[in-house]
Design brief:
Helix content: 25-40%
Number of strands: 2
Order of helices and strands: HHHEHEH
Largest sheet: 2 strands, parallel
Distance between the termini: 37 Å
Strand content: 5-15%
Oligomer: single chain
Number of domains: 1
Radius of gyration: 19 Å
Strand order of the largest sheet: 1-2
Number of helices: 5
CATH topology: hypothetical protein PF0899 fold
């Protein structure tokens, strides 16, 4: 994802690359992401996680700011906005209700199963 102004002013990308990034087959701008989220707002949304931000032509503050502005405009200040970064592991997020019981499967427990059985 990119900020349109930063992309336009980026001295390292030639004009044809900028055109491709901005095309309908290119990358999502912060404004376009905000427009998509606006269409999803009638749904049950508690958290928005932004990812795949351009290192050179975006920042977590710009991306989150675009989304926060759209949420405020729509009266949905109850939604948490989080920016995942390329260089760090993000927080863990709970998605949906969990099942009752002693063991809750996680990505790690499913991914690192051994021949002896699931990891616990």
């Amino acid at each position: 994802n990119h900020d349109e102004k930063l992309l336009q002013n980026d001295p390292h990308r030639p004009w044809p690359v900028k055109q491709r990034i901005q095309s309908r087959h290119g990358h999502l701008s912060n404004a376009a992401a905000a427009a998509v989220i606006e269409q999803l707002l009638p749904g049950k949304i508690e958290r928005i996680v932004l990812g795949h931000l351009s290192r050179d032509c975006n920042s977590p503050a710009l991306a989150a700011g675009a989304i926060q502005a759209q949420l405020e405009k729509s009266g949905r200040t109850d939604i948490e906005v989080f920016c995942a970064t390329q260089g760090a592991i993000s927080d863990r997020f709970s998605i949906g209700p969990t099942r009752g019981g002693a063991f809750q499967p996680t990505f790690e427990s499913l991914f690192f199963e051994t021949a002896a059985g699931p990891a616990r």
